[in-house]
Amino acid sequence: MATREQKLFEMPFAAVYPLYLTKITRKDRTEAELLTVLAWLTGFDAKLIKSHLKKETSFREFFKGAKLNPNAKLITGTICGVKIEEIEDPLMKKIRYMDKLVDELAKGRPLEKILRSKSDM
Known about the structure:
The protein has 121 residues and is mainly α.
C-alpha cells in the first residue's frame, strides 16, 4: 500500500497548480507572480512550467529536473503543521518549499521578500 507521501510524489503537478492559482488570485495576486515564484524556486522559466502542466508531470519528475535556487534553504516556517527545516525527505521538503512560497504570495508578502536573497535575511 502506498504511503501518503508516495501518493503526493506521484501526483501530477497540474493537479495542484489550479489550487495554487485560485488561492493567490482570491488575494489579488496574479498568475505571472505565481510563475515568477515557481521559476525562482525551480530554475524553470514560465514556458517550461507550462510544459510540465500540459504533460501532467508528477511532483517527483517535476523536481527531478529542477535546479533548486540556492537560497531556497532560507525558506523556513511551518506548513501543514510541520516545520520545513525539520522535514527530512528531500522531495517532500521541495514540495513544502513551494507550498510555503505560494502561502506567502497569497498572504500579500512583497514579491521581493518571497524571492529571498541573503541580503534580505
